[in-house]
Records
---
Amino acid sequence: MAGEDELPAREAMEFDVVVVGAGPAGLAAAIRLKELDAGMSVVVVEKGSEVGAHILSGMVFDPIGLDRLLPDWRNDPDRPLKTEVATDRFLLLGPSGGVRLPNFMMPKLMSNHGKLIGSLGAVTRWMGGRAEALGVEIYPGFAAAELLYGANGEVVGIATGDMGIGRDGKPKAGFTRGMALHGKYVLLAEGARGSLSKQAIARFKLADGREPQKYAIGLKEIWRVEPSQFQPGLVQHSLGWPLGRGASGGSFEYHYDDGLVSVGFVVHLDYQNPTLSPFDEFQRFKTHRLIRPTFEGGKRLSYGARALTEGGWQSAPKLVFPGGALVGCAAGFMNVPRIKGSHNAMLSGILAAETIHAALAAGRSGDEVSDYEDSWRDSDIGRDLYRVRNVKPLWSKFGLAIGVPCGGLDMITNEWLGLSLFGTVKHGKPDCDTLKPIAAVKPIVYPRPDGKVSFDKPSSVFLSNTNHEEDQPVHLRLRDPAAPIRDNLPRYGEPARLYCPAGVYEVVYGDEANRKDPRFVINAQNCVHCKTCDIKDPAQNIDWTTPEGGGGPNYQDM
């Protein structure tokens, strides 16, 4: 890579607040800041080609955050959420059948009645319009690639990535230097495992004294189904098949708008078998006899994948650092059993904005906005996460048959009595440490996709509209280039080729017939920015960094 001294100086722009990420948390923060002070200068940088291009969520939406931020949103004829939940189902699947769990047995907070079904990408595009109407500057297509620090080590802004760097690390003919965006405070709203959030957490030791963050990978497709299979307002979740022992997760199926169904599968990344492929588990799930009829004869429109934060109450890092704060899924605010995080993302953006506004009004800048850290656990966010804090660790420790009922009981006692029989259960290992050696497991063999309801990775990535400039540095960086073949291949069969949902990683052989001369190949142009490799790699050898702004998926209403 060209050194800093070989490149022209960055142009700089000054703002009161710089927000990284145009998701629900970042946009909520920007909107709230401008509501509180119309004269405040606020900028949002977004690595996607447009607002919503990199947004992926289930989603059944809890409107508590949007109601608080924009109370008039239901009166807007262009509002993106118009389908209310009409039917709420929960299935327990086996290999050949399943049972529906009675709704009265479910904890009250699991009910989705009164919630809305739609697209988070559409919600963020709509929020982006509202933000710009208030005077927020939004720069899509600009990846925040670097944190900038002041004389005392405080964060004073971000730098966007340079454009027009060749694969060899040298500037090309169309080279453009990134911008320096300085702010009195910087909010990191990048979502799960954001690259700048990861740096801030490490530099400022924000995770010290907390449980390891836990993650899942969520895979999603949007279908237009046959009219006879469409059930407006249906919300259906399942547990069980096809996941086996040593793995956990579940599915969702949501019917909304005009004949659309979003279907997805979540695999917790603490699974043990290195031959497990989350993508293939998702494709296999759709072939179940209780699931397949919905999609037969339909048309698959979109595909994508994204990592989810699942550590919750125990794993949330310290949220503030000198000059900035973490909001949304960068802070780890997803509610696992509800499979919902957008409401807490918005609430955290609002709370951080109000704290920063007070700090700026007092003439402060570049310090820790400690009131944000001190108040979130007593807010609606904390109350939401505290009640479900033991669901994920109990599930991981004791499995489906014991752990899930114990988690359900824990939610009920928290609801009714305000206490837990289990206290606060620890998560234990980080997800990168849970794989067993390949010699200790039974390899999973997946059926070939039928091209009707199940598909392969290349055709799926095509539907994500993923695109990267090929002549640019590989943004998936290996700390030790020899580790995949030297360490991961003999011990784990190199699981990157399976946990990646986009076919980015391959092991190819110079002598294919005799499986000799293996080589690790990174097809970075396929990357859908899910961040799973950065999380699950047992060698912790892969660093996901930002490619050129605008690269990656271009999701349509995911």
---
Amino acid sequence: MTLNRNEQKLAELNQPKPWSGINAFRSDPLVVDIAASMPRPLRDDFEALGRYATSPEAQDLARMANEGVPKLRTHGPRGERLDVVEFHPAWHALMRRSMTSGLHASAWENIADERGRSHKARAIRFYLTAQLECGHLCPLTMTSASVAAISASPAVQKEWAPKILSRKYDSSNRPWMQKSSVTIGMGMTEKQGGTDVRANTSTAERVGEGIYRLNGHKWFMSAPMSDAFVMLAQTRDGLGCFLVPRLLEDGSANGLRFQRLKDKLGNRSNASSEVEFSDTFGFVLGTPDAGIRTILDMVTLTRLDCALASAGMMRASLAEAVHHVRGRKVSGKTLIAQPMMTRVLADMALDVAAASALSFRLAEAFDKARDSAEDAAYARIMTPVAKYWCCKIAPALIYEAMECLGGSGYVEERPIARHYREAPVNAIWEGSGNVMALDVLRVLTRGKDLFELLFQVISRDLGPSAKKTVDVLRAAMSLCERDEGAARMLVEQLALAAAAAELYRLGAGRIADAFLESRLAAGWRSTYGMLDSRFDSAYIVDLLYPPAT
């Protein structure tokens, strides 16, 4: 009764109930439609995860994991090196649940219900979990993606894959072979090189068959309590890629000395470190001169997760904003009934729907790339494009959602504040915007024929608008061949065209029409709320964010 009286009092004070306990899967018609053709056990799994992601208990775990940030202990009481990172118990609870869900493993498990759709099924789980908390997804992303790099060395894969794919979370500080499961981190960037990993100065000397001794430093090494790290170092033959265990078989340190943890803007529940290493053993992955090619297989998968996480955070933030404005009144009317507010929400809803659809379509391309030239071309070109666009629009969109809540949104008690601080990392991690644009230019230079296959996909789904849209894309391609600085224009146009095409393919006709006409046929705009009155803003909001029942 006390709770009911409190809620009644808040209602009298014009304060809506918190956005909590609203199933993140069931309340998202776009994702429900995407999952409709999947087997019932999968849909039940998504529904359970959707309930968990918005539950008060899970939201509390997310809050505590970000308030109780990781702590580095370099030394013990006797002066001995420890090099361990301590996490809040809430972090471990989040990790345990997400590993049980298979976010680190399901893409590789060949489960019957997910056969032929494993990347897409995992994408839905990842998207839903991102609406809860993204920091703990970082090690799970790297662990999942590491399988692609490790497969370059069958002997290493045979030993490590069973531990990587285990769904039993094991946070103990023991050698990897003694554990029930392992997680994998990543160390690529160095102070002098950053994204230019060819400038790396860390070295690796061969000491045995497939075994090297590494020396150097890493400016950013994510998830330092991982059981091993995929790292780059210079060999006598060129830049190599290595799997580096954190502990040796006897439990002693493998020469890794953590210097400090990064004090980051967001991603605070997750630890990122600077590390120096000497006489550190590692297993070479692939040939010792193929480091970039090997690690790019891993990076490609992490870029998909960046797009998915951005889409998930945007969805959660806008859902919270829509919920708030439905329950708050101004001048005798609910905020959502105010014409400008409705138009702002509808405008944002179009971008969230497009980003979500584009990310899931990319995951589907990963599933089909082996058997379809079109999907292989889609995966190659649209990975950097989707990563660029979804991650680039997220901070501004989440901020606009925050503004819908006003001062109430600008407090740490609400998840939206955490999403806002988290959003920039996806645009920066695994290649900033310019790096993504340069990657697209690389395809334009070396595999221009792939664009023709991509245009076939876009044309088939865009319908009557296809010819004009593809003509614009061809013009942008031609401009980029003469002017490298124009690459971002091509990338953004590709993202908008492919997102519109996917919305049409999914049958979201009126949503797709509004997105296409406002993004591809209208003039440039820099803020939300610019939708023309011919689009039914209330319809868009209610369709994509149905009122809770």
---
Amino acid sequence: MKRHTSPWFAVYGLMVILLGAAALGLMLPGLKADDWQSYVILLAMGMFLEWFVISTPNGDFSLSFVLVFVTFILFGTPATVWISALATVFARGIVNHGHSMKTVLFNGAQYALSALLAGIVYEQAGGQIAPQADKLMASNWLPLAAYVVSYFVTNHLLVNIYAAREQARALYPYWRDVFKLELFTCALSICLGALTVLLYRVIGSAGVFLLLGLIILVNALLKTYFELGLAHRELKALHEIALQASLTLKTGELLHKILHQALKVVKYHTAIIYLWREELEQLVPQVVISNNPNYKAWLENNTVEAGDGLIGQVVRTRQTVIVYDCKRDKLIRRMPGIYQIMRSLLILPMVADDKLVGVMVLGKREPFGFKENQKQLLTIMAGQAALATERALLYEKIENMAITDGLTCIYNHRYFYARLEEEFQRAKRYHHPFSLLLLDVDHFKKFNDTYGHQAGDKVLQRVAKVLTRETRRSDVVARYGGEEFAVLLPNTELSNAVRLANRIRLAIKGEPVEIGSNRPLVSVTVSIGVAQAPIHGHEPGELIEAADRALYHAKGAGRNRVSTAEEAEEVD
């Protein structure tokens, strides 16, 4: 599967880069040669701030706005445009974690455009622009507020449009946390920036270096604070998984909740939980979270063989794996579609009591999206998820045994009757018709007497297989008793039910049964009665009786045929 990205986004990225370059050219005459030493110091300060980025589950942030604020207050818009752009390009160009040069240039350009537009808004708001004016005076605070707001709005608008090409943002539900983080960062940056300006005016460039050390110290303290907050969130997520394990017994619902908890401690764009099928030696996708419906559909329909690619190898090694860049990993490239959809992966085996339950895969669009320190926590989380999943699967297995016929592996009479009552209630509420098929294997007693009960069991299994194959997922196929089967068809009128019944009849007749080695295949036929609610019955018992009369009419008319309740009534 090729990754489809709209050409519009490529044009948009190039347009921003060109506009950023134009902004630099426009602001070049405004730079003053006499201030070059201060420019170099501020540029170094900006590069340091870009390097000291703090990662949180809701995004990365730094105190880089300190540079923007200080440069604008001291030297105006031209210097701010140039220094913020160069600091970003130099810093991220050196430490870019695998990002393309286009992305690096885009970041530099969007900072330049944000600074330029904020400067224009500041002037339009009546801000002081004279070289010697004190921009920090109280009378200038309103224009400065306009500057700050317009800078952040422009910055986020440009970045989010660029990020939207990968539909990444919609999977991050914690906008309140992000907003609070941005507000906190902005307020702290303004305070540190104002202090830097005051020190610069008193002791010159040495003040900038002094504040740079303070900013790095504050950054370190903030990093420690957020790491402690993250540790608390991690413990809470582990507790929630343990809690959900005791409250949730539906496997699909449980797995969705597990991925929801994982999102609280690590960002991802796509997530898959495969369950291990021992009898097939396959990983079968159980839950897929992706914002792109095409990717989601593709992932939901692709199993992974044991040993196939890196995900398949985790089945054997049972070791957590981080893929920093899928495009450079040969094993991932052997799995078509995965590396086009996700650029970095975290692959976690779900093991409970030395038994493989499944594999959890978290993916990001960008390379180097996962870090080593996230590996240990999520490995523990995957282990807890495995225990909870195994418990839910065991519960579902026991539950299915209570409603499933042991021989044919389709629903039993008890479950069928419960669903029939539900369908009557739904039909009364929404006025939707539904139909019922009652099916009987012709001359089954004679077949058993001739070929034996084991051969008879094979016939019943073959009929159940055909019924399951020919019907929809919404239909209910059940063994009604002995050689009788029932098929409940929601939202189906009599004419469509008759067509389906004839298709089933022909399919069963056309698939002979092997009754033993060195013995010829034997064909069997079925008779089918069809009734529709509410035409032939307003209650479950009435509808079953109508379908049963139709079935006996089909048998009386020579078997291997389909009859309706109306045809049976005409005979009566």
---
Amino acid sequence: MPKWLGSASVMSAAVMGLDVRPVSVEVSLVKGTPIIQIVGLAQSAVREGRERIRAAAAQLGLHVPGLRITVSLAPADLPKTGAALDLPIMLGILCAKGDLPQDALEGTLAVGELGLDGSLRSIRGGLPIALFAAANPGVERLLLPAANLREASAAEGIALGGSDSLTDILAALNGDVPLRGPAALLPAAGRTDRTETGGRPRNGGFDLSAVKGQPVAKRALEIAAAGGHNLLLSGCPGSGKTSLARCLPGLLPALDVREAVDVTAIHSVAGLLADGSGLQRVRPFRAPHHSISEAGLIGGGSRPRPGEASLAHHGVLFLDELPEFGRRTLEALRQPIEEGQVRIVRAAGSACFPAEFTLVAAMNPCPCGFLGVPGRCRCPEETVRRYRRRVSGPLLDRIDMLVDVPAVRWEQLADPAPGETSAVVRARVSRARARAARRHGTTNARILPARLEEACRLERVGRSLLRKAVTHLGLTARGYHRTLRVSRTIADLDGQARVSEDHVAEAIRFRGP
């Protein structure tokens, strides 16, 4: 019977979607064929860690005993993916061998990928793991790669330690040197941290003052920014639809701390954070190509990961050339638009990703794009109808404002006078958002139907206008609620506590002809 020579247990964690599950890394050493065997639904990237561990140990002069090493990842029925378990497995082997005292790992949760030279590389999900560790009373300290320290520092109530090297981790656990903390990685005073903004200006380089003409579309853009409302821009090529949409991020206020944590966690799980980056303060702007798949847009995969809808959480999802997207792909957006989240269910498990985004879409009025321009469009009427039917009625019903963007006239193009800058409009948007937040704690686009009447306080004439809109324009119940929300936002932009008939009339005009 094999002789039991040593054992150890190390706390770690696995990321499933945005959820984090505890993983206990248990190591036992027995006499037998020299092999490292990893059990517990370890997928290929975890099993390949055996070779990374052996190479790193040899590079650093650490001795991996020629014994049968069994690594059990508990719970056994939880799938484990990725390379974040390399570090706890290595620590468990060294602890079971006696090179590390077991009490050095008490209350410590460890994650990290090992390089062949003994370096520690960044992992996905550093912030969600730190939030999990902070909420777990049994965890006192989190060990992770130095590249993940800044994002993890957003989690309060947990001691963080990290390094670029396994050697430093081992020295700290043996009490020889202290580990580096997040403060050591903060940028020098006066230096701009480009990683938090993705190295781009806050508005992506598009300022509203550079867009000539289009007063109606600019007004709609301001309303969309103030209330988080969905917007569809329709017009001929070159009228400025894309430029207008790309101005929207510059009209939005910076993320608050709670929103920044949410956005950073999603981008961390998706592997989109640059090494050493901290909280993302700029609202995301995602503009996928129309060839994107359904899984790419809303998320999915055997190991569920967030799609573009979730990567745009608290920001803007821009769909240019809307009718060119696949029908199934667009229809998959209906639930996220309505509920603000994406649920992905697979045989191996499920995941839920937040997806509270402002949808901005752009389309041409016909296949050639020049419908209504004398002498330019020769599209048959049936072709135009078929083109527009690519966007379903249920999806259009979820869009708050439908705006026609006409061709810009020469007089407007040649006018040297600059329009309002994005900064000026952003100030009005911020005040309107603050009013909405004080009133019901969210943007107007997210007001629940049960609270709409209380939030809007419609006057008699305004209610009469809405009744006519429902009767003569055929507004659905959803369209009625969305019109109410838009009118509430217009009132907030005007600084009014009550929604007047003018506010309702403007909101109805944005529902289309």
